[in-house]
Design brief:
5 helices, alpha+beta, 2 domains
Length: about 130
């Protein structure tokens, strides 16, 4: 689906998350929300900036820091991506009740918490 918009998951996700967080987000904050390391995000931001989808600006409070802003082209792309993703979600979840979805999300949250505890315990979280 993303290929139709000449995007990959790696490039689309930072744009969508930036749109949700709002302009003026620091690169480190976006990296945390996207779930990637800072250097990996820098490469993605370089590509997205080169494509004219976002821009870096100096933070007025700290000139050492750059903030990220969607360009008009980036906003338009996120709008199209959101529409396509909404349609996909509707198709995928058409036969799933709200109760079933809530149950699934509860289970996923429990698994995520357990994984965090397991990794925090220093066992490496690897499979047996």
């Amino acid at each position: 689906m993303l290929k139709a918009y000449d995007q990959s998951e790696a490039t689309a996700l930072p744009l969508i998350v930036l749109a949700r967080l709002g302009d003026g987000v620091r690169q480190g904050v976006l990296a945390d929300h996207v779930g990637v390391e800072g250097p990996s995000l820098v490469r993605l931001v370089d590509m997205l900036e080169q494509d004219g989808l976002l821009e870096r600006r100096n933070d007025p409070r700290d000139r050492r820091v750059k903030t990220l802003h969607l360009t008009p082209a980036g906003r338009a792309l996120v709008g199209r991506l959101d529409g396509a993703l909404d349609g996909m979600r509707q198709r995928l979840l058409a036969g799933v009740s709200l109760e079933q979805l809530e149950t699934a999300l509860t289970v996923f949250a429990a698994v995520e918490r357990a994984m965090g505890r397991s990794l925090g315990a220093g066992d490496g979280g690897g499979m047996p």
